[in-house]
UniProtKB/TrEMBL annotation:
Source organism per UniProt: Elstera cyanobacteriorum
Pfam family, one: DctQ
Swiss-Prot/TrEMBL keywords: Cell inner membrane, Cell membrane, Membrane, Sugar transport, Transmembrane, Transmembrane helix, Transport
Subunit structure: The complex comprises the extracytoplasmic solute receptor protein and the two transmembrane proteins.
Main location: membrane
InterPro entries: DctQ, TRAP_DctQ
Domain Tripartite ATP-independent periplasmic transporters DctQ component: 30-161
Record's subcellular location: Cell inner membrane
Functional summary from the UniProt entry: Part of the tripartite ATP-independent periplasmic (TRAP) transport system.
A GO term for molecular function: transmembrane transporter activity
Membrane topology according to the record: Multi-pass membrane protein
Protein name per its UniProtKB record: TRAP transporter small permease protein
Example of a GO cellular component annotation carried by this entry: plasma membrane
Length: 178
C-alpha cells in the first residue's frame, strides 16, 4: 500500500505544481484583458487575436487547474448531505462518487477529445475570425485538463481507501479547513 500512497503523493505534487503555475497564467489573462480594453477604448483599436488570446488564457487557467481544485478540496460537493455523516461515511461517498461519476466522465471526455485535438494539430486549424489564432493550443487544454483531473481522482481514491484502512489521515477533512 505504501507504493500506491507514494503514487498518490506524486500525483498530488504534479497537480500542486500545475496549480501554482496557473496562477501566473491568470495574471497574464488579467494583463492581456486590461491592455486590450485600454487600447480598444482609448485608441479605438481592436484585434481578434487579442480577444482570442484572452479566451485561450482563460481555458489554460480553467482546464488544467481542475485537478488542483480537486486536490485542494475546493470542488463543488453536496456538503448539506455529506456533512451530516462521519468521516468514514464521507470517505465511502467520495469513493462511490469518484468511481461512478468522476472517473467515467473525465476519462470519456479525455478519450473523445483526442481525435479532435489531433485533427486540429494535423490541419493547423486556424480561427475563422480575421486575424485569429491557431486553434490547437487551446484545444489541447481539454485532454490535458481532463487527464489531470482523472489522475487527481485516482489520487483521491487512494487516499480515501488508505484512510478507511487506517493508513492515512482524513484528507478531505484536513483540506476543507486549510
Amino acid at each position: 500500500m505504501s507504493g500506491i500512497i507514494f503514487l498518490s503523493r506524486c500525483i498530488d505534487g504534479l497537480n500542486e505544481r500545475i496549480g501554482k503555475a496557473v496562477y501566473w497564467l491568470l495574471l497574464m489573462a488579467v494583463i492581456v484583458c486590461t491592455v486590450n480594453a485600454l487600447v480598444r477604448y482609448s485608441l479605438d483599436m481592436s484585434s481578434n487575436a487579442w480577444l482570442e488570446l484572452q479566451w485561450y488564457l482563460f481555458s489554460s487557467v480553467f482546464l488544467p487547474a481542475a485537478g488542483y481544485t480537486l486536490l485542494r478540496n475546493e470542488h463543488v460537493r453536496i456538503d448539506a448531505i455529506s456533512g451530516r455523516f462521519g468521516p468514514r461515511v464521507r470517505a465511502w461517498i467520495d469513493i462511490f462518487g469518484t468511481l461512478i461519476f468522476l472517473l467515467p466522465v473525465t476519462l470519456i471526455v479525455f478519450w473523445l477529445s483526442l481525435p479532435m485535438v489531433w485533427e486540429s494539430i494535423v490541419n493547423s486549424e486556424m480561427s475563422s475570425n480575421a486575424g485569429g489564432l491557431l486553434r490547437w493550443p487551446v484545444k489541447i487544454m481539454i485532454p490535458i485538463g481532463f487527464l489531470l483531473l482523472s489522475l487527481q481522482g485516482i489520487s483521491e481514491l487512494i487516499k480515501r481507501a488508505a484512510f478507511l484502512q487506517g493508513l492515512h489521515p482524513d484528507q478531505g477533512e484536513r483540506q476543507a479547513h486549510t
